Amino acid sequence: MTMNTQGRPTAPESVSMSSIETVSGSRGLLQHEDLLFEIGTSETTGVDLPAPKGTKNRLGGVARKQPTGLPGLSEPQAVRHYMRLSQKNYAIDLGLFPLGSCTMKHNPRLNEKVARLPGFGDIHPLQPQATVQGALELIDELAMWLKTLTNMPAVAMSPKAGAHGEFCGMMAIRQALIARGEGETRKRVLVPESAHGTNPATAAQCGFIVDEIKANKRGRVDMDDLKAKLEKPDDIAGIMLTNPNTCGLFETDIKEIADLIHAAGGYFYCDGANFNAIVGRVRPGDLGVDAMHINLHKTFSTPHGGGGPGSGPTVLSEALAPYAPVPFVVKDADGMYRLVEDIEGDASESFGRMVAFHGQMGMFVRALTYILSHGADGLKQASEDAVLNANYIQARLKSVMTAPFEGYCMHEALFSDAFTAEGIETIDIAKALIDEGYHPMTMYFPLVVHGAMLIEPTESESKAELDRFCDALESIARRAAQGDEALKGAPYLAPMRRLDETKAARKPVLKWAEPELAPPVAAE
């Protein structure tokens, strides 16, 4: 008998947990919390300090003339405020994080410990290079492993995120076309429907014209449409293809696609955001890829979310390697490492500099720690387990949810809302998941599937945790198929109920304003 089934029931079965209201606004150990402005007042201060004696104000005409208007809180109040807010966060350390195409996997604590070593955590990008030889060696070694895993001869380490890596690859392609004297004539970039949404945006940012390729019934590139786009190849700059694609499927015609693009005189950019599914199993360089960014914050388990930190090194083929951005690390004959930072010598054909410094050092440390601690066999197993877990979820749920494409998936399982009763939408299912204690999956993406729900469990999750998640989602799916109107009001157990998300996005309230006092009621 478990602890939860011993003794007397703590509440009558007729009482619904969602119907219980509390005076404090708290729900058990989940504390209600107001804004700082509502907790403290501007008339008080958490710390009383006497006015300094014998000092002269040196602020001149910029001294503050009005109070700041910030609330004063004691130290316990401030600590409790942020602790209570932290309890409202969902995190990978709390449970399965099913966001598709994001790879929210466990971050080994070993990585964090190494990244905090003084020789890595306390250095400054403006230090003399002679004083950071260990850091430069680490960057060089990580670059070597990224090239080995992809079978590509060069890598640009400075891009600081996935879209930044895309930008790097497309700028290298642009520079290569300019060097060929075709910078003004080859402007068309083919982008499949199943590519990541940043791909067409990046192509446009680099001055290219986006030409969309249709998807076939298998969720992959429609080869007939691709070949039709290549009938007049003189303006083809290249293709931007995500593999595995955003439907969670491997592009089985990728080698033929690469050959066709190269025959047309273009370059092949592969979005490597989903590299976590194929590390150790497939080397993109073997498939004809010319450029591919690697999200270190996805594939090699660095922290992911909150707007960063990210890192998107971009591997380059022999055809694009001369145009890589500066800076990059080289090792001289005397064994010393240095940064090539000027567009001259080895970097004379570089398209230029992308960032102020050298990339994301903390991410480099974490990624190399992850790679070395796993080894070749461990990296391969991580990819295989990620694919296995996604296929397990697909197999568990396809009897109650609709899988839009036949066959096995890669690292993420995709479902549509075709199984839901009229009036029940994807967002209702996602909101109901919050009541079950899970962050919702990716919704309405990819756009090629109506009411899409994209789930990526990653390799980090055990079968027990996958079953727990599937049990919850299966129950919600059955309710959605039956047209349970209660789903329209979910979540019921979250700190905040369902909001008008459109209004919140278009008219966000970003500044706290003191509420106006109601006028006194006149006595009769």
From TrEMBL:
Molecular function terms from GO: glycine binding; glycine dehydrogenase (decarboxylating) activity; pyridoxal phosphate binding
Catalyses which reaction? N(6)-[(R)-lipoyl]-L-lysyl-[glycine-cleavage complex H protein] + glycine + H(+) = N(6)-[(R)-S(8)-aminomethyldihydrolipoyl]-L-lysyl-[glycine-cleavage complex H protein] + CO2
> What InterPro entries does the database record attribute to this sequence?
Aminotrans_V_dom, GDC-P_C, GDC_P, PyrdxlP-dep_Trfase, PyrdxlP-dep_Trfase_major, PyrdxlP-dep_Trfase_small
Q: What is its EC number?
A: 1.4.4.2
Pfam families noted in UniProt: Aminotran_5, GcvP2_C
Q: Please give the residue ranges the record annotates as the region Disordered.
A: 1-24, 46-74
EC class of the enzyme, as a word: oxidoreductase
Where does the source fall among the domains of life? Bacteria
Q: Quick check: keyword Metal-binding in the entry?
A: no
> Domain Aminotransferase class V: where?
186-305
Query: Where in the numbering of this chain does the Glycine dehydrogenase C-terminal domain appear?
Result: 382-481
The GO biological-process annotations, alphabetized, read as: glycine decarboxylation via glycine cleavage system
Q: What keyword terms does UniProt attach to this protein?
A: Oxidoreductase, Pyridoxal phosphate
Cellular component aspect of the GO annotation: cytosol; glycine cleavage complex
Protein purpose = The glycine cleavage system catalyzes the degradation of glycine. The P protein binds the alpha-amino group of glycine through its pyridoxal phosphate cofactor; CO(2) is released and the remaining methylamine moiety is then transferred to the lipoamide cofactor of the H protein.
Q: What is this protein called?
A: glycine dehydrogenase (aminomethyl-transferring)
Provenance organism = Hyphomonas adhaerens MHS-3
Cite the source lineage: Bacteria, Pseudomonadati, Pseudomonadota, Alphaproteobacteria, Hyphomonadales
